[in-house]
TrEMBL record:
<dbReference type="InterPro" id="IPR029058">
    <property type="entry name" value="AB_hydrolase_fold"/>
</dbReference>
<protein>
    <submittedName>
        <fullName>Nucleoside-diphosphate-sugar epimerase</fullName>
    </submittedName>
</protein>
<dbReference type="InterPro" id="IPR036291">
    <property type="entry name" value="NAD(P)-bd_dom_sf"/>
</dbReference>
<dbReference type="Pfam" id="PF01370">
    <property type="entry name" value="Epimerase"/>
</dbReference>
<dbReference type="InterPro" id="IPR050177">
    <property type="entry name" value="Lipid_A_modif_metabolic_enz"/>
</dbReference>
<dbReference type="InterPro" id="IPR001509">
    <property type="entry name" value="Epimerase_deHydtase"/>
</dbReference>
<feature type="domain" description="NAD-dependent epimerase/dehydratase">
    <location>
        <begin position="3"/>
        <end position="224"/>
    </location>
</feature>
């Protein structure tokens, strides 16, 4: 099977391409874009091309499916050029695909095609996508759908065209002004009491597109989770100050700021949230279902942005949700987290996250490893796995404000550290029995209160652990007040085992 993907260098492309390339049924993926692809793969071919180019027909020839992602999303001043790329380019993609003999086209639409109106309940595909002529993105998404519907009526049964309407996508490959606004220190929305978002993780979005590539779907399909998060609730999760502002003055202010170059978006992006949708049609047609809830995705978005989850009830509980937040670190250290166990342990500071590694054999000994200040548990996972393979039960605990633990990012007070150690030890004692050992990985850890932007290794704890600079869960600023200095330390699994043996002899 051969598949072409327009807009391959976009954030959508970054999420979808790996899924297509991993499919053994797909032999070739042609990525089209106006700049070089950042990835290489033996099945991947790159073609530098504008979607308005008539030559795109030859690129599509021999393809079974075309995934159309190319679209002007980030606002530019020239709206005529924006509409030309979005509308004429999309029409050219559809017409060229048909002439090239393509069997199906999958278009990345958006729930914004419905327009900016807030509705009292989730809408399905029976609601007309009216767009909004005063908002280029909403207007163009709706117009592309209108052309596709017109084309399908003219060519019944000749080529399948599906239009997937994703809700708000988050994930490690998605970074934009909207996410910055949603996770900033201050939020401002017209109708803040009513505004809401259905946050969808990029893996769930990519799964839906992958399914659409391999079967004949026709027409529009909403693509989102079953729940949604109000903006006031989103603000409470992270300690953001939220204000209700009148829409018209906010639009005028945003337009002025955009003209002056102070912001990257104009008033065309000032809305009271998004339409909430029902995705039953897609589920019934393909079996697709989101793996994360909107609330879990919101928490992942907050953590990946380096912002805090402050309340115990917002802590990520499920393994799949924890792994979604830890994905940048997991890829960096080469850990497949599908079989790992996560727990959130109630504490005075909120919730303490821990990875649990049951011994593969034996299991008479248990050790608690507190992740060093400035790091989180995932960077100790390889060491914990090695210990578990050698018969040691391991609980790797994150300090408050570190990793998926709740609390202000990078803040680990002496009382908080003491509490985290106490609850981690209590959990280990109940889970595995006996008296757990506690070992600190690294050398002397001195109290620190200074900016600590992600470094190639964390000198402040002398762990020399290499980290991913793009890992949003690493605190941008570190304030560690002490609490680990009295613990025995080690640098490796062998060193931890040696400390455990010494403790046994001493006791």
């Amino acid at each position: 099977m051969k598949v072409a993907v327009t807009g391959a260098t976009s954030d959508f492309g970054a999420a979808i391409l790996p899924v297509l390339l991993d499919d053994p049924d797909i032999d070739t993926v042609i990525g089209l874009g106006r700049r070089e692809l950042p990835i290489e793969h033996p099945k991947l071919e790159f073609v530098r091309m504008d979607i308005r180019d008539p030559g795109i027909e030859e690129v599509f020839r021999g393809c079974e499916a075309v995934v159309h992602l190319a679209f002007v999303v980030e606002e530019i001043r020239d709206k005529a050029a924006t509409h030309d790329i979005n509308l004429r380019g999309s029409r050219n993609v559809i017409d060229s695909a048909y002439r090239a003999g393509v069997l199906r086209v999958v278009i990345a639409s958006s729930i914004n095609a419905y327009g900016p109106e807030l509705r009292p309940k989730p809408v399905n595909e029976d609601v007309y996508p009216a767009g909004d002529p005063d908002r280029y993105y909403f207007h163009d998404k709706a117009e592309v759908e209108h052309y596709a519907e017109w084309w399908l009526r003219r060519h019944p049964g000749e080529m399948a065209i599906s239009m997937l309407r994703p809700t708000y996508i988050i994930g490690p490959d998605f970074s934009n002004d909207g996410i910055e606004q949603l996770t900033g220190p201050v939020g401002a929305f017209p109708r803040a009491d009513d505004a809401a978002y259905q946050f969808l993780h990029q893996r769930d979005m990519a799964d839906a597109f992958h399914r659409a590539v391999k079967q004949d779907l026709v027409g529009p399909f909403n693509l989102g989770p079953r729940d949604w998060v109000g903006v006031r609730e989103l603000a409470a999760m992270q300690g953001q100050r939220m204000f209700d502002v009148p829409e018209r003055p906010a639009v005028v202010a945003a337009n002025v700021a955009f003209r002056l170059g102070l912001t990257a978006f104009s008033g065309q992006w000032v809305t009271a949230g998004e339409t909430v949708v029902d995705s039953t049609r897609l589920t019934e047609a393909t079996g697709w279902a989101p793996t994360l809830t909107a609330r879990e995705s919101a928490a992942v978005m907050i953590l990946l942005q380096g912002k805090p989850l402050l309340r115990r009830e917002d802590a990520l509980e499920r393994r799949i949700a924890c792994e979604a937040a830890l994905e940048p670190a997991s890829e960096f250290v080469g850990v497949d987290g599908r079989g790992l166990e996560h727990v959130q342990i109630p504490a005075a500071t909120g919730a303490v996250h821990a990875e649990v590694h049951a011994a593969r054999r034996g299991g008479g000994t248990t050790v608690v490893l507190p992740a060093p200040p400035g790091l989180h548990a995932r960077y100790l996972t390889p060491l914990a796995v090695e210990l578990a393979e050698n018969g040691v039960n391991v609980v790797v605990a994150d300090l408050p404000g570190h990793g998926p633990s709740t609390g202000k990012r990078g803040l680990a007070t002496a009382a908080g550290v003491h509490d985290a150690l106490a609850v981690a030890l209590g959990y280990a004692r109940i889970r595995f029995g006996g008296t757990p050992h506690v070992v600190r990985v690294g050398d002397t850890t001195a109290p620190v209160s200074r900016p600590g932007r992600r470094r190639s290794w964390v000198a402040r704890s002398r762990t020399r652990v290499v980290v991913n600079p793009a890992d949003g869960l690493l605190p941008r600023r570190l304030r560690y007040e002490g609490g680990l200095e009295h613990l025995p330390h080690a640098y490796s699994a062998r060193g931890v085992t040696s400390v455990i043996h010494t403790d046994r002899v001493d006791s």
